[in-house]
């Protein structure tokens, strides 16, 4: 039994809607349904009556809900207590972020901080924007470092949290080059066509941003989603293999573009500008958090420049 199954079940019980609960948990609807079924298999009885609309909890489900809520609450309390105990000792900077930023941008940020203050202890947690924002709100992280796009937003209370823009980059449309070095799947052609697209799940922040951008394109291009993933690195290799085109974070593809393994599939107007924001509580308890914050405020990451079509 996995703890996330209990969180899923509690989320479903609040709404009696698989789709809304899946959105809240930031997983795909099929994956959410499989996890509820896995929990039911572990318990040994049906917890959800799927024969009604909307779906409801069975009698066993209502009884189990109390146990699930108590277990989740006790685990969260225990986690918070243990983290507070650990933080009371040697000061550690706890960063909540996504997988891509943990790989591309955060190492450079930490290197800047170490140059200024010396060796520091760091703990990095990765996950969806929703889960990592919740981790910050609950005190499980000192800072949240996340991509940001104004069309999507991030719901943190401005009275309690503040942010810095620590970098600017974009989602770049890239694909494999043909034998002549031109894009296999160019966006600039005026002909009506369908291009194979490697994309993000729609209930993720990157998926929402990409959908927003594609809906605003003013040409006749259509896209067929041939590959879906829940993080950008999972798209990088199939793009390089020529499966299709993808919008990928700039810092993730800069080496592949320089080496000629990928090419820009369009122009500057096809890029999706993003900010990388660092969020924290307005009154942090740790001096190390303030040092990290000041270092990023004084020395944000320099922008990357890529030539479209290069």
Automatic annotation (TrEMBL):
The HTH lysR-type domain covers 1-58
Can you tell which superkingdom this protein's organism belongs to? Bacteria
What Pfam families does the annotation carry? HTH_1 (PF00126), LysR_substrate (PF03466)
Please verify whether the record's keywords include DNA-binding. yes
InterPro entries for the chain:
LysR_HTH_N, LysR_subst-bd, WH-like_DNA-bd_sf, WH_DNA-bd_sf
* Record key words, sorted: DNA-binding, Transcription, Transcription regulation
- Give the GO molecular function terms: DNA-binding transcription factor activity; transcription cis-regulatory region binding
What family does this chain come from, according to its entry? Belongs to the LysR transcriptional regulatory family.
Q: What is this protein called?
A: DNA-binding transcriptional regulator, LysR family
Q: Which organism is it from?
A: Propionivibrio dicarboxylicus
């Amino acid at each position: 039994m996995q703890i996330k199954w209990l969180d899923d079940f509690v989320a479903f019980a609040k709404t009696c809607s698989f789709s809304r609960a899946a959105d809240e948990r930031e997983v795909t609807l099929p994956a959410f349904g499989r996890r509820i079924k896995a929990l039911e298999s572990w318990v040994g009885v049906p917890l959800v009556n799927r024969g009604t609309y909307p779906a409801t909890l069975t009698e066993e489900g209502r009884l189990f809900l109390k146990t699930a809520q108590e277990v989740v609450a006790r685990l969260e309390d225990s986690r918070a207590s243990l983290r507070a105990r650990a933080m009371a000792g040697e000061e550690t900077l706890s960063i909540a972020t996504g997988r891509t930023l943990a790989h591309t941008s955060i190492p450079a940020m930490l290197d800047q901080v170490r140059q200024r203050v010396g060796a520091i202890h760091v703990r990095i947690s990765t996950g969806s924007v929703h889960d990592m924002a919740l981790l910050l709100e609950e005190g499980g992280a000192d800072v949240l470092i996340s991509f940001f796009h104004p069309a999507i937003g991030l719901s943190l209370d401005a009275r309690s949290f503040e942010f810095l823009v620590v970098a600017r980059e974009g989602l770049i449309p890239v694909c494999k080059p043909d034998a002549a070095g031109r894009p296999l799947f160019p966006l600039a052609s005026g002909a009506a066509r369908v291009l194979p697209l490697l994309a993000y799940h729609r209930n993720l922040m990157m998926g929402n941003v990409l959908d927003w951008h594609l809906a605003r394109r003013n040409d006749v291009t259509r896209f067929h989603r041939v590959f879906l993933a829940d993080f950008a690195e999972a798209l990088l290799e199939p793009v390089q293999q020529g499966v299709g085109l993808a919008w990928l974070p700039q810092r993730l593809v800069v080496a592949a573009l320089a080496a000629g393994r990928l090419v820009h599939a369009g122009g500057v107007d096809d890029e999706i500008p993003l900010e990388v924001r660092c969020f924290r509580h307005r009154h942090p308890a740790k001096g190390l958090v303030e040092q990290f914050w000041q270092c990023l405020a004084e020395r944000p990451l320099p922008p990357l420049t890529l030539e479209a079509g290069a």
